[in-house]
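Each record in this resource describes a single protein on a pair of labelled lines. An example record follows, reproduced without changes.
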Amino acid sequence: MGDDAKANVKAILNSPSYLLAELDTSFLQRAELRPVRMQLELLKPELLLSEAHIDSTIVVFGGTQVVEPAEARRRWKRAKDRLKDSPNDAQRQRDVARAERIVEKSPYYDAAREFARIVSSACQLDGRCDYVIVTGGGPGLMEAANRGAFDVGAKTIGLNITLPAEQVPNPYITPGLCMQFHYFALRKMHFLLRAKALVVFPGGFGTIDELFEVLTLRQTQRMQEIPVILFGQDYWRRVIDFQFLADEGVIADAHLDLVQYAETPEQAWDIITRFHKHKPPTSPGGETPDVGPSPT
């Protein structure tokens, strides 16, 4: 074999075309491979959760900015210290006001943590994995819920998402049960496949988006029946006026019953246990939530 032929063989072996398709990440990331990526993103978490014997979950949503009380007070103090340097600065005044509002909401962190502790203590016994707490895996109130399960040595799941401003998973998720998603739609599907309840703590756009996804699926009977619990009635009644929607005729009066309110962890848990006391268990192989694909 001549030198030119040897060089050509080397070029052949080094060409991306010679890589096995399963090892060629550049190929897998092509736009034409989106259907394959979506299938993999559906299948991988399903296999991991099944292998971990996760039979059912309770989904907890909530804002990333609502942190534990001590940290909220520290941030408030820092904002006030910055304002002292420039007391007439409108943005710094606004920062202090917003930080104060977070301090007022910070008890929700402890409530989410306690709720998850109660659920995990009651349901993960003798090796069972029922009503496993699942969150988006990020900071704030998601961290609080994962932390409550972590406190009692229970399994807890985090379904993280790739974002332009990357977020590191909170440290309280069970290793092996933290999964990263590219597609919001498939992440939402995995939130709901095994869900026995949804508990929604105060939050912003992301929390509200996820709440309305569930309400739409429940309204149209495209998923299993679960209680949808809004934690903190004063907050949620200001954010969303469901009664107004019914009065305007754009939702049915019966749809108002899709949501319930709780003020304490014990009250939220009581709603869930009373709801399922009269309902047969839904197997993971039941109705698949009808969540459409993300466009990217």
Residues 34-51 form the longest helix (18 residues).
